[in-house]
Design a protein that fits this description.
Layout (H helix, E strand, L loop, with lengths): L3 E7 L6 H14 L3 E6 L2 H4 L6 E6 L2 E6 H7 L4 H13 L3 E6 L2 H10 L5 E3 L7 H8 L5 E4 L5 H13 L5 E6 L7 H4 L3 H9 L2 E6 L5 H8 L4 E5 L17 H18 L8 H10 L1 E5 L14 E5 L35
Parallel strand pairs: 1-2, 1-10, 2-5, 6-7, 7-8, 8-9, 9-10
Antiparallel strand pairs: 3-4, 11-12
Helix pairs in contact: 1-4, 1-11, 6-7, 10-11
């Protein structure tokens, strides 16, 4: 089964439905399986209207009210319906991370979500996790900033409501993530320790980590993208562009094919090359009937015809020929007395 690739819009639509549709178009062109948004009401998850947030945007450091910032990125019910319908028109899977229970209920009231995504920030929000899992949809949870016991608690909470369709995304919650922090070896540990499917929420630069995650068993990969790194907003600068997203997905699809099968045998194309590239035993000079074969009159050279490999020369040595063999021609057992 192919890796499921989620093109994460997040809030990179900047609250503009035209931009949101353009991002859906670009995700489709790039070959993503799903385009994912974030659904929230700012007042329900930002408790202090005076709380500020500092981020990088357009090459500058911006500090502003967190509440006001998130308010700019909210869509209304009719807008969400329009986005969902547009995804259907484009044959693109729609999903969105619901920040609160009311947001999940709202999404489920207007569409059939293919899965429920929980971000790293809510990994320890266990009562909400149970509520989400009780909807009996596939669960995809990010495990950024987490200790093992916190992942275990979250998985247990979902299983308590009899939801076993769980994918845990290895995630490092730093933007961008440095190579020394990525720790892809965590992926099979998460899979084996908790008996879940695994994936990768990628905050690195480039596609190398995503490609590596596939080698370690990731079946879901999530990546933030933007239409332009120079747009105003907190997430644009570290997100990948549509062109980069296309290359990113192509790289993942390449490694999927390249992993292949664990069978130690030549491929079909190698069998053709094997025939012309491997050396066979040939006559070093013209040989006549009755000549005895030795390492002085035999040689090892490439030849397009079927022949005996050099490792089997011991079966030819000191035996007499019953036919003449021209120089450079194959010597076979049928030619011997």
């Amino acid at each position: 089964m192919s890796v499921f690739i989620i093109a994460e819009v997040g809030i990179n639509h900047n609250g503009d439905i035209t931009l949101a549709k353009k991002m859906i178009d670009e995700a489709k062109i790039a070959g993503a399986d799903c385009v994912k948004f974030q659904t929230f009401k700012a007042e329900e998850f930002v408790s202090d209207p005076k709380q500020t947030y500092t981020y990088k945007s357009q090459g500058k450091e911006i500090t502003e009210s967190m509440l006001e910032m998130f308010k700019r990125f909210q869509f209304q019910k009719d807008e969400w319906k329009e986005i969902i319908n547009y995804c259907k028109q484009k044959d693109m899977v729609f999903s969105s991370t619901a920040q609160n229970k009311s947001d999940l209920d709202f999404l489920l009231s207007i569409t059939d979500l293919p899965f429920i995504k929980v971000g790293s920030d809510d990994l320890t929000n266990l009562e909400q996790m149970k509520y989400y899992a009780s909807k009996q949809k596939p669960m995809i949870i990010s495990a950024g900033m987490a200790y093992a016991y916190e992942i275990e608690d979250a998985v247990r909470a979902m299983r308590e409501v009899e939801n076993e369709d769980i994918t845990v995304l290895h995630c490092i919650s730093s933007y961008p993530t440095d190579a020394e922090e990525v720790n892809l070896k965590k992926i099979p540990v998460i899979r084996d320790a908790f008996g879940v499917k695994v994936g990768f929420s990628d905050h690195t630069i480039g596609s190398a980590s995503a490609v590596g995650s596939v080698c370690f068993g990731a079946v879901v990969i999530e990546k933030h993208f933007t239409l332009d790194n120079d747009m105003a907003g907190p997430d644009h600068w570290f997100s990948i562009t549509p062109k980069e997203l296309k290359q990113y997905i192509d790289d993942i699809r390449f490694i999927e094919k390249a992993l292949g099968k664990p069978e130690l045998k030549p491929t079909e194309k190698e069998m053709k090359m094997r025939k012309i590239a491997r050396r066979k035993i040939v006559a070093k000079r013209d040989l006549n009937i009755g000549d005895k074969l030795t390492d002085k009159n035999l040689d090892f050279k490439r030849n397009e015809y079927d022949g005996i490999e050099p490792k089997n020369i011991k079966f030819l040595l000191n035996r007499e020929l019953k036919v003449n063999i021209d120089k450079e021609c194959i010597v076979n057992l049928k030619d011997l007395i």
